[in-house]
Specification:
By secondary structure, the protein is an alpha+beta fold. Helix content is 31%, strand content 24%. The strands form four sheets. It has an eight-stranded mixed beta sheet with strand order 4-3-5-6-7-8-9-10, sandwiched between helices. Strand 3 and strand 4 form a beta hairpin. The structure holds 6-O-phosphono-alpha-D-fructofuranose. One of its GO terms (cellular component) is cytosol.
Amino acid sequence: MRRITLSRYLIEQQREKNHLNSDLRLLIEVVARACKTISVAINKGELAGVLGSAGTDNVQGEVQKKLDVLSNEILLDANEWGGHLAAMASEEMDEPHPIPNRFPKGEFLLVFDPLDGSSNIDVNMTVGTIFSVLKCPEGVEPNEQAFLQPGVKQVAAGYALYGPSTMLVLTTGHGVDAFTLDREQGSFVLTQKGMRIPEETKEFAINMSNMRFWEAPMQRYINELLAGKEGPRGKDFNMRWIASMVADVHRIMTRGGVFFYPIDSKTKDKGGKLRLMYEANPMSMLVEQAGGAATNGLQRILEIKPEKLHQRVPVMLGSKQEIDLVTSYHLESQ
Ligand code: P6P
C-alpha cells in the first residue's frame, strides 16, 4: 500500500468525498496528535513516573490513574485553541468543558474517554482512547443538553490503541480505516483500508465471572456457545477477555467476534457498566460502519436517546449473525 499519512488521507477524503470540512479535518488531526502524546507517555511506563493512582476519584466514583488525568489534560489542551469546537466532554469530568473565551469557538462537540481500560496500565496491558464527534445544534448553548444526541448523529468516531504498536481507527461515516503510528516519522500511516467484520464468528468476549448475575436471555445465549458443537449452535466457540474495551473491540474489528457487557443484577440500578456517549456510541458507529451490529439487547445502541452525559448502557456488539441472535433472545423475553 502506498504510504499515505493521516494528513494526506484527510485532505484526499475532503477533496474526493467532501463530507469532511476543514474544521472536522483539523479536529481529527488534533485528536490524533494528542493521542501520539498520550502514546509517548504510556510507552515510557514507570520511567515517566506516570503510573499508579492520582489519589482522586472521577465522576464515576472510580479511582483515577495518573495517566487518566494526564490523558484528559492532553486532549483538552490540544483541542481548546483550534476554533473547531463548541465544547468538550470526558469520562473524567463531571461537566462539559467550555472553550475559554480567549479562543474562537466552532461547530463541533468532542466527547471522549481519554484512557479506557486504565486499570490495565499498571500491569502493562493494552489501553486506548475513545472519541466521538457531534455537531453542536445551531443556536444551542454547548452545555450538557447539547451533547445528548443519539449515536446516529455522530459525524465521526474513533479510537487510539496503545498496544505493541499504536494505532488510530477512524470512521467519518464512510467505512472504517486504520492507521499505524510510525514513531520515527511521528506520523500515523494508513495500514488498513475498509475494515470489515465477518457476519459469522466462533469467538466471544465477556467477563464470565458475572454469569450468575446476568439476565436469563444472556445466560441462555452464552450457555449455547459453551455447549459447542454438541449443542444447538453445532460449532465450538473460543473466548477472549482483555478487560480493555478498545483492545477487545479492535480484535473484533480485525478478525470478527462479539463483545458483551450486559446488564446484570450488580449494575442494573446504574443501567449497565459501559458509558453510552464515549464508549458505546463511538464503538457502535465503528462496528456498524464495518458491517457489524451493536445493540443494548433490545435496540440499536445508536438509536438510544441519551438522558445523561455519563449514562451507562448494556453493550452487545460485533459479528452481525451473533448480535441478531442474542438480541432476538432478549426481545423474546420482553
Ligand atoms: P471488568 C475498563 O475498565 C472497562 O471500562 C472496559 O474497557 C472493559 O471492557 C471493562 O471495563 C472491563 O470490565 O468488569 O471485566 O473489569
